[in-house]
């Protein structure tokens, strides 16, 4: 064994240590037709060790990939000396941008001169409000900040106020804005590393499919060498669908679990068209224990801003994936003592992914209980306890299943990976038999100990309760000679999760 040491694993642009083992290794699957600068169609996956790595790969929060919306004002009557005209834009989350006020000077005697001077006033404040202006003939065109995305495309966010003789026509949406996808990707990656700074995130960009089979899960897992333990899937190009969870589960079980590279998946899709979140699908009717549905998102900070400017669900996918990678496989990442998803600003106000706040009058305690019973994952707060926390770590299966929670699946996945690694050297090995054809005690003891070794380690890690030799059983009478198959039975003693605490209390 090497001497005790501290080992640093360096990512591009940052030096990071990662946690021991591989339980933290995660993946994020994104669908897009436009790749960041650090990716190509033949190099569409990367391992990231920090948000700096993402930025160095071209995933930037500068909204450069967005299209700015424009609005116009046609001046039909010029102002007189001393008259004023001003433009105010009220953006996402109610932010008011005052673009400045132009006052007619004595030498500005025509519409052309006044329009050009008005544009100059607006452009002089670009570094403050982020808007620019141009004037042609009689029309002032204001280009709004790219960060506003689709928000200016509807409603009446622009206002022009005048004094004196000025008159004209305001067109709210001269050209439509398009939101930045990179800002959303950056948000989820940043939230992931906020949840677990000492982690590895494999990110994969794939074309938006005509039909979602989620085969890309296996492609990204293969790119990682089978190391990914949990993966987030962000499907923003289409609405949330229960069939997706079944398809994901099939993909995971058939091409990953059954190929010795098991993982759990967090699924996040667009719920912006769901006006009443209580109508979400009841996942307890499915049999998709390898996938969980994330339907919560931030309600008042950056996540909410992105939701308003994108017009589609942002969700808690990034922070959920980060905290899942941080948690031990036996833990519920909704545990309040360990897993606060808010930094005091982001997620300080919990919402659902359709924009409904948990505090909305329509969402009573019984309504929230009903959504929880449908086994979706969202955020909540506790009276008298600071922070925001995931309601639970449900999977898309009945609550009575042995695999009803993510920790159930992660524990058994870790055990199967460990036992597989321990036994693979002895595949096709000779098994010594007694004269009566039964397996010898030495053979059984050796193979039993190989299986027990990773279980003992899981016990030391806190991921299993007491492990005993009886947890691994090999029937000495089985006929391996005729079947060429050795059956080893393993029983796991999983830790319990106190999801409810009952306290009988009364006077003495």
Overview features:
single chain, alpha+beta, Immunoglobulin-like, 6-stranded mixed β-sheet, 12 helices, 22% strand
- The N- to C-terminal Cα distance equals 60 Å
Tally of distinct domains? 3
Mean of residue pLDDT? 95
Q: What is the gyration radius calculated from CA atoms? A: 29 Å
General form: elongated
Q: Which bin fits the share of residues in helices?
A: 25-40%
Total number of helical segments? Answer: 12
Strand content: 15-25%
Q: Strands across the major sheet, in which order?
A: 4-12-3-13-14-16
Contiguous uncertain segments of 5+ residues: 9-15
Biggest beta-sheet profile: 6 strands, mixed
**Content-based structural category:** alpha+beta
The strand count comes to 23
Structural commentary:
By secondary structure, the protein is α+β, with helices and mostly antiparallel strands. Helix 4 (181-195) packs antiparallel against helix 7 and helix 10 crosses helix 11. The strands form eight sheets. Strands 4-12-3-13-14-16 form a six-stranded mixed β-sheet, with helices on both faces. 26% of the residues lie in helices and 22% in strands. The chain folds into three domains: 9-61 and 181-397; 70-175, Immunoglobulin-like, CATH 2.60.40; 428-508, no CATH class.
